[in-house]
Amino acid sequence: MTTFKEFDYARPDLAAFESAFKEQFVALRSAASAEAFGAAMKRVNALREDFESMANIAQIRHTMNTLDAFYEAENDFFDEAGPVMQGHVTEYYRLLVGCPFRDRLEKEWGSQVFRLAELQLKTFSPEVMEDLQAENRLGSEYVKLKAAARIMFEGQERNLAQMVPFAESRDRDTRRRAKEAVAAFYAEHDGDFGRIYHELVALRARIAGKLGFDSFIPLAYARLGRSDYDAAMVASYRAQVREAVVPVARELRARQAKRLGLPALKHYDEDIAFLSGNAAPKGDPAWILAAGKRMYEEMSPETAEFFGFMTSRELMDLETRPGKAAGGYCSYIPNEGAPFIYSNFNGTSGDVDVLTHEAGHAFQGYRSRHFELPEYHWPTLEACEIHSMSMEFFAWPWMESFFKEDAPKYRFNHLAEALMFIPYGAAVDEFQHWVYANPDASPDGRKAAWRRIEREYLPWRDYDGNAFLEDGGFWYRQGHIFEDPFYYIDYTLAQVCAFEFWGKSRADRAGAWKDYLKLCGLGGSLPFTGLLLEAGLGNPFRPGTIARTMEPIKAWLDGVDDMSL
Fold first, then answer.
1. Residue 383 in contact with residue 531, Cβ under 8 Å?
2. What pTM was computed for the model?
3. 158, β-bridge pairs
4. What is the pairing mode between strands 156-158 and 151-153?
5. How far apart are the C-alpha atoms of 301 and 299, rounded to whole Å?
6. Measured between alpha carbons, how far is residue 305 from residues 291, 545, 546 in Å?
7. Within 13 Å of residue 39, how many CA atoms lie on the same side as its CB?
């Protein structure tokens, strides 16, 4: 069994791929039966998976070490090659949706692949090829800019991930200085971040215009495969968040200030939940990984098999180091049927969250390996996040393994932070809708809009006179805004669904786990609301859903004597 470091990598030969695709397109056009068309579909998808496997291996190895010149060049190659491949896939989708055997194929493959194909046909034409390549280059420039952060703090040069533990320090002055140092990095590069985003917004608006859209907003929704809801439904959902979640979050921030013995929170206090310090894992990365392995072995036969696969094939890179790109993610290498978990451990509870959140993504990918269609390996992104956020809650019974006596502290803060995240996620989404509805705004105008929206969703936030943050610069650190426009609301939609699994698992863990396994096994074979229906979950777009969801969460949190933690 090969490990990730042994996975073969070779830069795809674009000319050879183009020739192979053209050959299969001829086969699709000339197919005399549904069986012949389906066989050509499988050959097209094999080509796609070959390309995707190489692209994802290159991307993972590049983020593992952004100083590696070879994989930096490969990453640059895929920035240019990705849109070329998108062109081939678009032609395939055009033949698929126009297939004379569509009724027969829908019975075999399901309707979702056709819905996704129809949406993706709206997102590409050869006219925007160079624009898409430029968009990729700007996204990579943003990643490199953050990865290059070198912040001198406490006598040592540190990257952004290494600053996180200082932001959670029990010492208030340390927290303040850490937050100020990070803000100073972004302020120092204000011009670079502002320019990159300004160019991205203009570029995306231009792409939307060339493709016949009134603005980038509907194009972004099509890119994300949102076939069953639109921007108006999301706006209505955000209104529910303002009405039902913001007041509860405000109460939780007031409780936090009381626990910390402060009259009110400053922004540098938000990351510390208890005077005694946040719950932190009681061992080093190897110890955490060993505890995670025991957890998944005990959780279920399915998770035991999955985590054994991940560890034996070394499909995780968890520790931070110089030159490693910030953040965390889960990727998938189709030719190996292998998910991959990437993160930057930093000694905080977030290290454990990686083994629940990102492992939730990976577990779903592992459970969906049986699908022959690449479109079904993952669902659309808001559904993807249900698997990850729900796994965080299914892992609750094992938190003593990581935090020992501080496990109750972890559970309270984990649930409280999950709730308090929702207004921030909604703010990010409203900001992006404003940005792309006003694409000609200046960088300073965007920062002012962020600060106005931030005050609406996070009314407690006090930047203690920091000029850069007061002027609206906080959002520079949110990579999704730059790299994955309109993705971020997906986390909040999924969190609402995960809260349901939290409640169900407390009442009937076996039943909740059965529903969760079913959801994971469905992969991306249904749209978001269709998956919710199959898993017995409520629809967050329906009026009143958010308020009902908040009731048991608030009741549980109110029942905890957090002053004693």
1. yes
2. 0.92
3. 151
4. antiparallel
5. 7
6. 16, 36, 35
7. 8
404 token code pair: 């020992």
In angstroms, rounded to a whole number, what is the distance separating the alpha carbons of residues 303 and 501? 17
Q: What strands lie across the sheet with 329-333, from one edge to the other?
A: 316-319, 338-345, 329-333
Alpha-carbon distance of 280 to 351, in angstroms, equals: 9
Q: Are strands 316-319 and 338-345 parallel, antiparallel or unpaired?
A: parallel
Q: What is the pLDDT of residue 1?
A: 78
pLDDT digits (tens, 9 = 90+) for 35-68: 999 999 999 999 999 999 999 999 999 999 999 9
Instruction: List pLDDT tens digits, range 349-369.
Output: 999 998 999 999 999 999 999
Long-range contacts from 131-137, C-beta under 8 angstroms, 24+ separation = 131/203, 131/206, 131/207, 131/210, 132/82, 132/83, 132/86, 132/207, 133/79, 133/80, 133/82, 133/83, 134/203, 135/200, 135/203, 135/204, 135/207, 136/78, 136/79, 136/80, 136/82, 136/83, 137/76, 137/79
Among candidate residues 412, 289, 414, 416, the one with its CA nearest the CA of residue 359? 289
Query: What is the rounded CA–CA span in Å between residue 275 and residue 278?
Result: 8
**Inter-residue contact 256 to 413 (CB < 8 Å):** no
Task: Retrieve residue 389's tokens.
Answer: 């956020």
Residue whose structure tokens are 């069986």: 35
- Calculate the CA 262 to chain-centre distance: 33
* Cβ count within 10 A of residue 460: 20
For a pLDDT cut of 70, what percent of the chain falls above it?
A: 100
Mean pLDDT to the nearest integer, 75-102:
95
Which of 50, 40, 16, 563 minimizes the C-alpha distance to 335? 50
Cβ distance 482 to 139 under 8 Å?
Answer: yes
DSSP state of 2: -
CA distances from 323 to 166, 172, 472 (A): 20, 29, 28
Nearest to 282 by CA among 103, 112, 131, 406: 406
Gap between the Cα atoms of 471 and 152, Å rounded: 24
Residue whose token pair is 């249900």: 386
Exposure class string for 200-211: b at 16+ Cβ within 10 A, else e = bbebbbebbeeb
| DSSP count for the chain of H helices, then E strands | 25, 5
3-state secondary structure of 330: strand
Two tokens, residue 36: 């012949």
Confidence of residue 327 (pLDDT cuts 50, 70, 90): confident
Task: List phi, psi (to 5°) of 34.
Answer: -60, -35
* Per-position DSSP letters for 141-205, written without gaps between them: HHHHHHHT--EEETTEEE-HHHHHHHHT-SSHHHHHHHHHHHHHHHHHTHHHHHHHHHHHHHHHH
Radius of gyration in angstroms for the set of CA atoms belonging to the chain, rounded to a whole number: 23
Task: Name the phi and psi angles at 292, rounded to 5.
Answer: -65, -40
